Amino acid sequence: MEKNHEGGEPEEPIEEVADLEELAKAGKEPPNARTYLFKVNDKSLSWSERFITGRQVLEAAGLTPPDNYSLRMKRAGGTPERVELGTRIDLRMPGIEKFRAIRKEQQEGEDQGRRNAPVLDQDRLFLEGYGLRWEIIQDGSTWVMLHGFPLPDGYSEVQVIVAIRIETGYPITGLDMMYLFPGVRRLDGKPIVNSDVIQEIDGKPFQRWSRHRTGGNPWVPGEDSLETHVYLVEEYFRTELTK
């Protein structure tokens, strides 16, 4: 470090760019930088100040008016944290990976599909704001069906139906795994491990992806929910392509 002009405390060096997601994955703290890079959903953005509010995150991503969106911040090893519009975020906070914005309102008059089982209020609010057509069906178990779920480039399908089993005892009992119709493969030819089991749900052959939480990221009743599980599903699709 260099000393300041008065010979006092040394000044902290300034780096040009700090990519928050890369630093979080490497377990490194963001440095003092002129530009901070981060993602909102899958959109890459840059910010030239250390601090940013939830409102500014949404506006920078072109998600306006911000009041129409809910915002989450994903930190390494943790579950997404709700960010209010007025919350001031320190971009040098360790572990910030990305932000997730979800539209709050629901279109009127759209065919909402089947609702053959009750759903918790918090889960209904999440599903209505997530932006995909959804159903709740009974087929041996209770299933949440997310239609038109978009997949990252690199899979044999552009979008699928994602089925999530609501386990007995939920929300104390955690949610686990995901089921896809149609089944998918990687375009690079690499196998998708633990995805060979086919289960019939609603008369269709769904491909089961056996994916589980780790000891470092356990299910926490009161914090985790269908919403955080869907965020994990998004991550599973992305991280699979890095293997």
What brief labels describe this structure?
single chain, 243 residues, alpha+beta, Ubiquitin-like (UB roll), 2 domains, 6-stranded antiparallel beta sheet, 3-stranded mixed beta sheet, 4 helices, 35% strand, globular, disordered N terminus
Descriptive overview:
- By secondary structure, this protein is of the alpha+beta class.
- It has 2 domains: 2-103, Ubiquitin-like (UB roll) (Roll), CATH 3.10.20; 121-240.
- 16% of the residues lie in helices and 35% in strands.
- The chain has helices spanning 20-25, 54-60, 121-130, 226-240; strands at residues 2-3, 10-11, 15-19, 33-40, 43-47, 51-53, 69-75, 81-83, 88-90, 96-103, 134-139, 141-150, 159-166, 178-181, 198-201, 204-209.
- A 6-stranded antiparallel β-sheet has the order 11-12-13-14-16-15, with no helix packed on it. A 3-stranded mixed β-sheet has the order 3-4-5.
- A hairpin with an 8-residue loop joins strand 12 (141-150) and strand 13 (159-166).
- It is globular and about 65 Å long.
- The two termini are 38 Å apart.
- 25% of the residues are buried.
- Residues 1-5 and 106-111 have low confidence and may be disordered.
Quick description:
The chain is an alpha+beta fold. It contains 4 helices and 16 strands. A hairpin with a 2-residue loop joins strand 15 (198-201) and strand 16 (204-209).
Poorly predicted sequence stretches spanning 5 or more consecutive residues: 1-5, 106-111
What sequence of helices (H) and strands (E) makes up the elements?
EEEHEEEHEEEEHEEEEEEH
Structural class: alpha+beta
User: Quick one: how many beta strands?
Assistant: 16
Please indicate the count of domains.
2
User: Given the C-alpha coordinates, what overall shape results?
Assistant: globular
Please tally the helical runs, counting DSSP H or I stretches of 4 or more residues: 4
Major sheet attributes = 6 strands, antiparallel
- Span between termini: 38 Å
Mean pLDDT: 89
